[in-house]
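INTERNAL AUDIT FORM
Audit reference: QA-55
Scope: verify that the stored structure record matches its stored sequence.
Auditor: D.O.
Record contents follow.
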Amino acid sequence: HLLAEGVEPALIENAARLAGMPVGPLNLVDETKIDLAYHIIDQSRTDMGDAYKLSKAEDVIVRMYDLGRWGKLSGKGFYDYPEGGGKHLWPGLAEEYPPAENQPDVEEVKMRLLYSMAVDTARLLEENVLTDPADADIGAIYGFGYPRHTGGPISLIDMVGCESFVADCRRLADAHGERFAPPEMLARMAAENRSFYGSQPGQGKG
């Protein structure tokens, strides 16, 4: 999403590392294979037909696949991987996704990265795809590098406080789209001053 909205690739990657992630999201997708992500998207489109609408992030994956940039194993993805070793962000990203004239503050990018994953994780709990907040936190840390110091995305929500988190999400949703819209479960928890881990209302894990 950030790349498609004109945020500089280096800013995205640096903000992620400053937030405590072991690698940036573009690096992570390269490691996990762009072609794999594409085939998952393609299968979803086949299964759902016209009902399936690509997100901006999925549009980026499809474009990179069409360009033959399939990730680290293919030698090129969001990064270039020269035969002599090392890696660097692919200069062609600037042509495919021209950087906006006004770049966001690094703190804003950090918040968008952390909050989007926290909203997605809370949504999985609301839909009972996940049932245990602790499992959700552990899975996020070990599965896709959510910053350890936060305790995980659900712990982050508790640390910020549900009411503040929901207010931040609504602001982000107004500015950047519905993917930041807080799940109804979080809105209820905020109204009732509840937390995921606290034994008392409003008492967070952190």
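Auditor finding: record pair retrieved intact. The mean pLDDT is 93.
Action required: none
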